Amino acid sequence: MRPILWRPLVKSVQSLAKNQEAFLRTLLSIALLLLPGIVLAQNPSDETAIEQDDEPVAASAQPLHLSFKNRPSLHLGEFANIDLKSKWHFDFRGFDPPKWNAPAQVTALPSTPPTFYLTRARVGVKGNVTKYFDYEFERDMRQTVGSDHEWHPWKDNYVDINAHRLVEIRVGKFKVPFGMEANLSEDRLDFAFKSRVSDVLSPARERGVMLHAQFLKSSRMQYQIGVFRYDGEGSDIHGLPTGKRTYAARLAGEPLRRVRQLPRSIRHIYLGTAATRGQMFEGPNGVHGSTFSNFTYLDHMYVRGNRTRSGAEMSWVEGPVTIKGEYAHMSEERIGQGIHGEDLPDKISRGWYLMAGWNPLGKMKSSGRPQNPFLTGHGFGAVELAARFDVLTFYSAPGPGLPSRSPRAPTILPNGERTWTFGPTWYLNRFVKIQANAQRERLTDIERKAVFGVNVFWTGILRLQLAM
Amino acid sequence: MRNGMIRFILASLAILSFSSGAFAQTPDDLFNGAILHEIRIFIAPQDYATFKETNFTCQFQDLDALAGKVISPLPRVICHFPVEFHWKFNGADVTLPQVSVESHGKGSRSNIKPSFKIDFSRYESRNNFLGLRYLVLRADTQDPSLMHERVAMTFFRKLGIPAPREAHTRLYINDAYAGLYTMVEEVDPIFIQAHFGQSDGYLYSYEWVAPWGFEDRGRDSSKYSPLPLKPENNVIYPIVEPIVEMVQTVNHAPDAQFSSAVSQFIDLTALFKQLAAENFVAEQDGIIGNYTMNNFFLYRFQESLQSTVIPWDKSNAFWAREWNIFHNFSSNVLTARALAVAPDLIAIYKDFLRQAADIAGGPGGWLEQEITNEYQQIRQAAYDDILKLQDKSATGTLKPSSNADFESEVAEMIQFARQRSAFVRAQLDSGLFPQ
């Protein structure tokens, strides 16, 4: 009765998943054996590496110069330049169970999902005006070219004012500085989709003002501190904000570079920490848990008070091996949210992930592009094999009464999911990438099933990415 | 650590105290018709306000979604609310601290006196209340007697039809009297298991959206489910094809094989028994009511093509004493063909009608006694209920119901009980068939 699309893959991975610890040990062993071929790490969410990796464009004496070397780019002498950028993601997906709750739609019964999705159709411009201003404007055109719903079609839309070496001011709409993966451009992700931890606990984009800059260049440290209109699109419910003004701060870099006693391969490990805090709108506005196919396993809890996030991130790139991990913790106050109006203990959402990647074929540049590209060069590109394990948990501080899943429960019965994601990525060249991922979500609270009788959900994705 | 231990001990004591309270009672106690029950629910005041705001939206949104319409989740509509549930019984206060409530009903839906569906398992899939996963608190807003539903279902069960158990209760919301309600057992897999010894078949509720009397809508299964036959279980892997085949057979089976062919798909004995019961109580809104088919569940037995019917919502029963025994038979393909080509089925139907007349009795018979007993039990609670509503003539508009309306309708019911059996017997004996 069920589709056989993923059955062979599912069986082999199920057996692997049974020995998760052994699997992780194996991955780590492979990583340690592949230490040679050092590639200097950089902030994983730093876009400057991409720009530095661009093919050099011949200088022109003309005041107006149009080039197509890396992307359509208009140079107005020394005064300004305008780069056209675009990202397209074409996805083929399969689900098991083969039903879902379509996003942005009220459904009385689960429906059969489509197979093909235009996941991203983004077009934008990016550039600078003199050395004092950088800018970026980007919009998702899915609704224009297709029927897919998009709550927030405007993406990064900001201006950076380079006021001082240690103070840059970013104004507009951009990603709240929380979460390494969440702050990474969608075309640079190791997997077709972000971890559930990043999806659920990171604020994503919001309108605001942020001070940021690099400091202690030898340690590649950078800071970001900002204030935002709402809590970010990540915690939205159907496009409506759930939190009011939110403050965020992040500190990241490679602080171990200064510790000369450490082995070189350890010194360039990237570390970061971040936090946000803001008041929530009263009501059923807590972040909720749902599978990738949109089956809810934890309802939006009633909240009132502050939402506070704290997180830590780590990235280590050594030759063909990449290891990344993040931890995020979110607390949401529930003042006066009991059935009788009593205060309830804070709701806690917590998660982490660990991913490992390995390039068995071809070499990658630090920018995440292949050294020997296919079609645009004379190589094959590069292939990366990657696996990620992420854990997301919801619970509350202990309160009176028995634990329950009710949205006004004094003590929230712990619930969450454990997700394995794995698959190869073929980086053909700087413009094209193909990813084949399988994702296995297992709900930890077997009594609160999103679908009766099922607590394991599979998603298969084949993605073609065109980006410039 | 010490605090944790204290909490563990307190939680254990709570479990023990709740368990002793809950396990002392049974569903038979909850639906014990000999007493007027008392239920109290506590709901956050802001949630009750939202409940009334979204009361009608939830119903239409759900139906539109079943019809395949794309419905935006904005504005955001909340339809389920957490409540604390108390059932006072024999001096005990049986409490469930976190259960869910949603509004209930179609034409009977009201913000003045809303009906509720209590979901004991929404926050805990294995949770239940005395073995029940749901409990409907029906406001009886169309029926001025507040008794049609309970009397009819009690009569059905007396006839051996698997019908929901019911009992009256005083309902208090946040300690304020909300009115006289009828507690109704939900037709769900637990009900199915109790009556048929299995529950892994396919259960559908009939959602009235347009008149349909088994006419052939073709072989497209989407014409039959999820509307009007809404799957209540197996929603991921629904198998609708047997319903398509059932309709095809009802419409196109050769006359000579009509009974045997259709009986592959429907338990015809059970169906005609229920038709007889509905006709006897002059059900105006049932399987062959005045609006074509309505108010029933269909359960297809596991590993079988055959389905059976289960009655639901008898608010519009006791419509008229002189309700023809073949009322609306010609408006439904199945009953019309049975009348034309299947005398065996009509004989079964007549037998059940006669049984119904025998059980109901005449003046002073079982039916009159049941009505009188229920009336005496609920009279004061009904008088205290200042939110009573009614739609006696089925106009589609609910209006306030007075104590005089209540008394008048009860008197009508007693007259019905005294005269209906004689009328039915007379029609049966006359050999009349509808024109």
Spell out the key features of this protein.
heterodimer; A: 468 residues; mainly beta; Porin; two-stranded antiparallel sheet; 10% helix; 47% strand; B: 435 residues; alpha+beta; seven-stranded mixed barrel; four-stranded antiparallel beta sheet; 12 helices; 13 strands; 18% strand; globular
Low-confidence stretches of chain A: 1-42
CATH architecture assignment of chain A: Beta Barrel
Class per helix and strand makeup of chain A? mainly beta
Number of helices of chain B: 12
Total of helices of chain A: 6
Query: Low-confidence parts of chain B lasting 5 or more residues at pLDDT below 50?
Result: 11-22
In terms of structural class, how would the helical and strand content of chain B be classed?
A: alpha+beta
What is the total number of structural domains of chain B?
A: 2
Task: Please tell me how large the radius of gyration of chain A is.
Answer: 23 Å
**Taking Cα atoms only, what radius of gyration of chain B do you get, to the nearest Å?**
22 Å
Explain this structure.
The complex is a heterodimer of chains A (468) and B (435). With 468 residues, chain A is mainly β. Helix content of chain A is 10%, strand content 47%. In chain A, the strands form two sheets. Chain A has a 16-stranded antiparallel barrel. In chain A, strands 12-13 form a two-stranded antiparallel sheet. In chain A, strand 18 and strand 19 (432-443) form a beta hairpin. Chain A is globular, with a radius of gyration of 23 Å. The model of chain B is unreliable at 11-22 (pLDDT under 50). Chain B is α+β, with helices and mostly antiparallel strands and 435 residues long. Chain B folds into two domains: 20-189, no CATH class; 194-361 and 426-430, no CATH class. In chain B, helix 8 crosses helix 10, helix 9 (333-341) crosses helix 10 (343-360) and helix 11 (366-384) runs antiparallel to helix 12 (403-430). Chain B starts with a helix and ends in a 5-residue tail after the last helix. Chain B is built from twelve helices and 13 strands. Chain B has helices at residues 2-23, 27-30, 45-66, 148-158, 189-196, 241-252, 258-262, 268-280, 333-341, 343-360, 366-384, 403-430; strands at 37-43, 81-89, 92-104, 115-119, 134-138, 166-173, 176-185, 202-206, 229-231, 296-300, 307-311, 389-390, 399-400. The chains are: A mainly beta (468), B alpha+beta (435). The A-B interface holds A 1, 97-99, 104-110, 237-240, 284, 302, 337-341, 398, 401-402, 404-409, 413, 447-449, 451-452, 454 and B 3-4, 7, 11, 14-15, 42-44, 61-63, 65-66, 70-74, 76-78, 82-84, 97-100, 123-126, 226, 230-231, 233, 235-237.
